Amino acid sequence: MLRAALRLTLFFIYIFLVTPGGLQAQVGPPVAHPRNAQKRYEIDAKRTGTDPESDDALPRSREFIRTDSSYYVGWLYEGMYKVNHAADYLGYKNAIIPLRRALAQIERDYARMLRTRTSDLMTYFPAYRFQLDYSLVAYNLMECYNNVEQPQDAYNVIRRSQRWNFQREFYMQSYNYLAWTVHRNRFYTKAKYPFLKNSIPENEQLANAFLDSAFKKIRTDKRLNSALFQPGYEESEMQSVYHYKAMLYSYALNIDSAARYYDRMRNYSIFSHNNYATFLSICGDFRQAAFHYNIARTQDQGDKRLQEWAYYSSLLDIYKGKPETGIQNMKDMIKASGSTPGFGWYNIALARCCMYNGDVAESERYIKKAEQFKEVHIGTTLGQSHYDFSINMIKLMNNISRIQQVKFENRNWLYSPVALSGLAQQSSAKYLLQYLIVNQFAMNPERDLVIYRLFSTESTVSWDEIWYLMRDFSTQFFYQKFAQELKDDQRPLIKKYFRLYMARLQMKKNNYTDAEKLLREILSDVRIDAEYEKLLIARSYEAMAECAQARKNKAAYNESLYGFYVTYPQLLPFSELRPNMRLSVIGTPDAVIVDRLKSCNINWVSDRSIPAPEVTLKFSRNGSKKTITYFVTDKSGKEIVSREDYTYTEKPEQAAVTLAYRLFNTYKKAPPADPKQ
């Protein structure tokens, strides 16, 4: 027993010396190098204290390669430096070359060490450093291939690593990464990548089978490793498998199984607050999701890839009716990351927040930036198809908003040739874009599991955007689809979203009574989080108002319209509804501004029995400086739109249109309508 303890102590002292993290110094018994032994001993000595993850790796690599270019260490250092400094497609392409060379050289010269499997410490002792180095090179080579979208090559590297059957795989957890590679490419088939099956269910089954093999390998290797490593070492390896199991079960919406694996990881460092937050979000627990995304902010800080917590937090800001918070956060992310991986995604999120904040022009500007950026999808299952779909959905939403802008800015648009011409142009563009997206949608094998479920780990759009994709198509098909989802879905907090879709589809069929029943169920649901589900509440009020309008129930219409405004005012100018407002003017008004404001699609009421927001405008002038102080309150006098001073220098007609949008909490200047209209 004492000898065994002494052997373990010596081994852990060796591990400590070999690594500050693992790879710097190389001590222990001399290695019988097959060639250039003296030069390689010199390289091994100089390697001491030089971390391949540091900025010193590049000059060291050049020195090592000059000393002996046939020794893998120099190429390992060069490859690691290039990986750590890569930020785009070309950077990862360049890193592949030295890593591939390092892998070939270590296999050529140290195959006996790589094959070593033993429970004997002194036999394993010299082989350890080569197996550790090999796993580091193979892992980073696999990652580079994934980052440049060459999954078949990534798969081949993993299989190449498995041939050595390491008793501890260190960086290259082969079965985990086989599962990840299959899951990341699940929507392709064998025809494109031979390692895949021919459908998403088959690919997911294959990925799960790889993870089951990972469990088996850990148990098998424990027979050898228990004599070498501290008791319980295998738990950290099991945790890695749990991580991928939770990911697969979350994707499959197998809620109980996913929750069970997350619970097993909760007290370990591998627990991903980002992944868990996304899991909570797709289950409808947005409050807890926001809490864990906030923790992920510190957990993932510094990673050179898309920070998913930031992207998905912006969706929660939209659900909360706080798109302006998402706008600021995304601008901060863009400023911090620059043109590195994630830049395109942050611009997509920023464009979406701008659109929900009523600033269509800014949304169009940012979505154009995303469209023109070559995004590199690093360390994420989100790929180019998700990226393109998200861009096109926001472009469609912006197009629809443009159509509604024309109607909002011109109450009598139906009698304006200029307005009708603009509407025709925007409508034509909308139909072309819808045709493009629907074709993409029809070709998307994930539509059943991702789009129709409204919330999915692989969805990159909001549940609200999906409605604008399908609202003009096949009402009966979609109604049956969502009725079935309502019946079968395991997520109680998501069912109300299916009800909203069913209500909307009933309205398309003129079944307003049935639609109202579903909408009342939503608004009376005690499980609604009034802070985090404002978008749902607002869309329900909007639909209720449309039902009441169709049924000519003025009282219900006014109540629902008022509820819509106080919940999410930014949405109203871009809806089909004409909002009620009550106007109070202080000071000497600019008659042109007041007249132009009243020509917008706002119903200015004076009847106190009608529930309506109270608009107060105070006009003042200091020399040539013209200022309007404005604010909007609800029935109780609480400010919905905070008091602001608006100093205008443009023409009064343009200022009036800008002011109209500001009354709905939209601060940016909207493109003004032609005064001639």
TrEMBL record:
Gene3D superfamilies: Tetratricopeptide repeat domain. It comes from the Bacteria. SUPFAM superfamilies: TPR-like. This is Tetratricopeptide repeat protein. It comes from Taibaiella chishuiensis.
